[in-house]
Amino acid sequence: MAAPTPEDDRETGSRKRAFLYISPFLALGIADVVLLLMWGLDGLWGFMILPPILFISAIGWIALRYGFV
Which residues form the DUF8142 domain (predicted)? Predict the structure, then answer.
């Protein structure tokens, strides 16, 4: 099995580019959780909201990394 070439990387996407595209959405999601907790809501709300944010960010990273988009 041959090592990936830069041409393959451009065709399917790169980990760095996928991270750069997903990081603003992840940051907004985590900021939302922090804001909810600062408003004085129960900590359980933060744990209820965080998994979907992480899941969607991971799906987006995978989609950008492997060229599903």
Answer: 7-69
